[in-house]
Amino acid sequence: MAGQEANHCYCGDRSKIWTSWTDNNPGRRFYGCPNNKANGSCGYFNWLDPPICLRLKRIVPKLLRRIEGYRARERIYWVALVISWVITIGVVLIYLSKKKGLRNGGRVLFLS
């Protein structure tokens, strides 16, 4: 980021900017080791942003939970939409196969 000094972690690597989404520090950015724990993170940590006010600590987590609730409902709606289309297409295919079967001497032909 422009105007910000480069931070280096204890590993000697250039630190990465992360964003905290905890209830105490929602949206607050910090410098951290670029290596994940599986690759041997050195545990370097330094806040980039100043502390947030108490009001935001109360409001932001509630808003995030509300957004996640909307996203969960949206996923359910998409699944229901896909299922309804599959059922609709299946009904149409059955109808067409029976209609075609009646024209062929009563034999039901299945689409393959």
TrEMBL record:
What is the designated name of this protein? GRF-type domain-containing protein
UniProt cross-references to PANTHER family, sorted A to Z: ZINC ION-BINDING PROTEIN (PTHR33248)
InterPro entries on file: Znf_GRF
Q: Annotated Gene Ontology MF terms?
A: zinc ion binding
Question: What Pfam families would the database entry show?
Answer: Zn_ribbon_GRF (PF06839)
Q: Does the keyword Nucleotide-binding apply?
A: no
What parts of the sequence cross the membrane? Answer: 76-97
Print the keywords alphabetically. Membrane, Metal-binding, Transmembrane, Transmembrane helix, Zinc, Zinc-finger
Q: Where is the GRF-type domain?
A: 9-51
Q: Which residues form the signal peptide?
A: none
Task: Tell me which species this is from.
Answer: Liquidambar formosana (Formosan gum)
